[in-house]
Design brief:
The complex is a heterodimer of chains A (181) and B (121). Chain A has 181 residues and is mainly α. Chain A folds into two domains: 104 residues, no CATH class; 76 residues, Orthogonal Bundle (Arc Repressor Mutant, subunit A). Chain A is built from nine helices and no strands. The longest helix of chain A has 29 residues. Chain B has 121 residues and is mostly helical. Chain B has a domain of 68 residues. Classes of the chains: A mainly alpha (181), B mainly alpha (121). At the A-B interface, helix 1, helix 2, helix 6, helix 7 and helix 9 of A face helix 1 and helix 2 of B.
Chain lengths: 181, 121
Amino acid sequence: MRDSASMDQFLKGIEGRAFRIAELATSDKEEALELVQEAMIKLVQNYSDKPAAEWAPLFHRILQSKIKDWYRYQAVRNRFKGWFGFANDNGDEDGDPISQYPDRPALGPEALSEASDFHQALEVALKALPLRQQQAFLLRTWEGLSVKQTAEAMSCSEGSVKTHYSRANKTLQSQLEDFRP
Amino acid sequence: MNNNQQEHKILLQIKQSLNQSVESLDGETRSKLSQARYKALQSKSNNKNWLPLAGTAFASIVALGLFLNLNHQQHNSIDEFPVSLLDNAEDLEIITAIPELEEMEELEFYYWLETRTQNAG
């Protein structure tokens, strides 16, 4: 089956990067694997018949949606924990699960100073970025999606993508400058 | 080196570093990703396999529901709504019949024949 072989090749080519993108978003290897698998299944089941050129933006749109769902789930779980007195509720109720999720690691300059090389420093700097900045940067720089495709993947406006990307780029440029070989 | 060149150079380094992080993924993660891919590719054929069964089951449930409903109405108000079992069977036949492509083509032929006859007349 040509289609099946093409899809296999496509997924093979994208799976590693997709895993890293999900891992950077969730800071959890197993969750990242789960999200990538769900995104793969949805792409295969719903979009196999689309032209192969459309698979990458579609796949990232699904993956971003899964990441957002994951954050939503985490927000609900944390709210339940809050009700039962297991965690603090910061009272931020703006409806955005990503901004409500409080467990993102807070990595400051001290974490960056512990990095011994460019690769480690990049990991620390990327994980410290706000999620939308991080994902916009990865989709634009690494995956090579256009502003429009990134906006569609992240379900936001093109203007937001430009802002997120610009801020992420500025932060990374300044933080990684000292780690250039 | 100006700012743009420097920025471009760091972006290139970032891409290289990220690519390297994928190349150096451990065997367990690679294996799990391969399994996920295999599962995803299998899901399409599995998904297709149960669709006809689900369709048949759904059609059967609808047909049974309709049959029982009409039968129930017949027993409750036989004077107001005289429906025989034979009528029910005919209804079912009409509802569950799927128009074949050949039949549709025949309809087109009859329409063409009618038009032609009118023009000739």
